[in-house]
Design a protein that fits this description.
Structural class of chain B: alpha/beta
Order of helices and strands of chain A: HHHHHHH
Number of helices of chain A: 7
Strand content of chain A: under 5%
Number of strands of chain B: 10
Strand content of chain B: 15-25%
Number of strands of chain A: 0
Strand order of the largest sheet of chain B: 6-3-7-2-8-1-10-9
Oligomer: heterodimer
Number of helices of chain B: 8
Order of helices and strands of chain B: EHHEEEEHEHEHEHHHEE
Largest sheet of chain A: none
Shape of chain A: elongated
Helix content of chain A: 55-70%
Distance between the termini of chain B: 10 Å
Distance between the termini of chain A: 38 Å
Largest sheet of chain B: 8 strands, mixed
Chain lengths: ~100, ~270
């Protein structure tokens, strides 16, 4: 998990890495300098932000690195909410405000 | 001398997704920021010290509790979606080194560096407070993100050290605390806001009780969201500016921006 987060941090801070990811995500992830499990490589290469969140990636790191994965901040928010069944105010969908 | 001291929310959506907010709420919130901008302008600062949270923009493998930029400049914002032009933000190495020394004298060890990237944490307040682009800015970052975070009493000690050195200088300084209040950044719960917790911070501050900054409310603490840890920035600036009552210029729980949004003048009688 730490290595996934390290990849995301550097994806967000090294333009060359972000360019390589945009060009060929699978190759970029598989050639990453650190040890990534196969499942982790798949989550990263497919920009599966929901899967990465469920895997335990820090939500702020995921949010700041998402653009480099090719997913906008608003799309991340939308995908997470859909996946967890929460509405715009963080309540379970269908639950009325008290 | 400390000529102004503001605390303000810095959520990226405040500038990057203005239309996500309820318009009436957004108007009231921007009006609060505009009042704060006027006070900064009236203070005619020679320099600005801004205390804000790190968001994995600079640090990952090494995470300092506190960090000061002593470089000639910083750069930001790193985010392109804010709509704030990327620029060099001039620094003030002499002032930064004085702050660093004062902190060390008080037993608070702060890391330092000569390069720094700024994100929404600093750039949103600098933009909305209309700090002139040629005004030197000393950014101080606080770890409000990963455990273990600095304890509030350490933040208070750092703030007291900063206050003591600034009070003895002829330089006119504006202090800005950026971050908070309750929010769940990057999480599925984003949009949830704990208005009770936010008001439990703001009400005592308005009444002159700053102890809420070094001993934050625990009532409902599990429902304030991880983003509320950014209150540490307020603690530092609050401790630097004494004991007087603060003035809450605006508070709006803005769901569309996923944050309990406030602007507070911590030195309204300056």
């Amino acid at each position: 998990m730490h290595e996934v987060e390290r990849f995301l941090f550097h994806l967000n801070s090294r333009p060359q890495l972000a360019e390589a990811f945009a060009e060929d995500a699978v190759a970029c992830v598989s050639s990453w300098e650190g040890p990534l499990e196969t499942r982790e490589q798949e989550l990263l290469a497919s920009a599966d932000v929901t899967g990465l969140y469920r895997h335990g990636v820090h939500p702020v790191l995921l949010a700041v690195a998402a653009s480099s994965l090719g997913v906008s901040p608003q799309e991340v928010r939308s995908r997470l909410k859909r996946s967890f069944g929460l509405d715009d105010e963080g309540r379970p969908v269908g639950q009325e405000a008290s | 001398m400390i000529e102004a001291a503001l605390a303000a929310s810095h959520a990226p959506f405040i500038v990057g997704a203005r239309d996500r907010a309820d318009q009436a709420q957004a108007d009231r919130f921007y009006a609060g920021y505009a009042t704060a901008a006027e006070r900064i302008r009236a203070a005619r600062p020679d320099a600005v010290v801004i205390v804000t949270a790190e968001h994995f923009t600079n640090f990952f493998d090494v995470v300092p509790p506190f960090h000061i930029n002593i470089g000639e400049f910083a750069s930001g914002p790193v985010e392109t979606h804010l709509g704030i032009p990327h620029r060099r933000v001039p620094g003030d190495p002499d002032l930064a080194l004085r702050l660093l020394d004062a902190a060390a004298e008080q037993g608070v060890d702060v890391s330092f560096g000569r390069t720094l990237q700024l994100d929404h944490g600093a750039m949103v307040p600098l933009h909305l407070l209309e700090v002139p682009e040629d005004t030197p800015v000393v950014p101080i970052l606080v770890n409000c993100l990963v455990e273990p975070m600095p304890r509030y009493e350490r933040c208070r000690a750092l703030g007291a050290a900063i206050g003591s050195v600034l009070e003895g200088l002829p330089t006119r300084v504006a202090l800005i605390a950026a971050g908070g209040l309750s929010h769940w950044p990057g999480m599925p719960e984003a949009g949830r806001i704990s208005e009770d917790w936010d008001r439990a911070v703001l009400s005592p501050l308005g009444g002159g009780d700053r102890s809420v900054l070094w001993d934050p409310p625990t009532e409902g603490a599990d429902a304030k969201g991880p983003g509320a840890e950014e209150l540490r920035a307020w603690t530092i600036v609050g401790a630097a500016t004494g004991d007087g009552p603060a003035e809450v210029l605006t508070y709006e729980p803005i769901t569309g921006w996923s944050t309990g949004c406030a602007v507070v003048d911590l030195l309204p009688n300056a």
